[in-house]
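Running this now, will post back.
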Amino acid sequence: MKHDKAMKLFQYQKDKWVTYGDIVNSLKAVGADKCKILLLHTGITFGLPARELKRRDIAAILYDAITELGVETLCFPTFTFSFPNGEDYNVGQSRTRMGMINEYARKLPEAVRTMDPLMSFCVIGKEKGLANTKGTKSLGEGSFFDNLHHAEDVKIAFLGANIGDCFTYQHYVEERLRVPYRYDKEFTGKIINQEGSEKEETYTLYVKYRDVIPYTPPEFEEMLVKQGYLKKAELGNSLVSCFNEKDAYRETELRIRENVNYFLAEPYDTKPLVKEYSYGNVTTVQ
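Update: finished.
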């Protein structure tokens, strides 16, 4: 549904608002409309939401703004990390904590969700086959990320979300390179499909050793902008940014090959590599 471009959504200064039109224009300014497949990381960080709008209203309106881009296929992270949290994964009902827009998209009747009980995605649009994952690796070969990497004309966008906080794609590259500061850990639980059938499954996540501290250095984002790979636009109190998947993979791989510790706060071998995993309230790739 299209809305009035002047609709006020978020107040970020006394007399300044982010409007519906600002959302659409900012996404277009960073080139998020120039692709066939768009993966979106989202956050509501632009300012104070308009008082007359409920949370679901805001999510629906922002989703409408995204659809105005005219991209054939939209993808949203709907991670639950169900098994690491000691929970079963219900494909149709398990909520995601990846943001209200993502949860709104997940519940749409046209959305198709992956069976992954750790790092699920929902896909809306032409290329629903992206949701057909193979094997039981949440990162690596057969995963949604792997499907995305082998697709054509893919972009990754951050709408009110910080790259340093949610560049989950980095972990897919790390798994492909088999970095020495992560290892395969198995998690077991039940998956309940759309028809209500249950099946016990074991999925593998490429987790970090206990004392390893992940870190995305600011100079990585600065380099991407300087080289023209990443486009950014200010929007209220936050930002919108976007880059090509192929550029994201190549530049991440290059930095790791040049310096295996590039995405760490300190060298991985400064402490013993202890295989210890913290269960409960898991929301990111540990």
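The chain has a mean pLDDT of 95. More later if anyone needs it.
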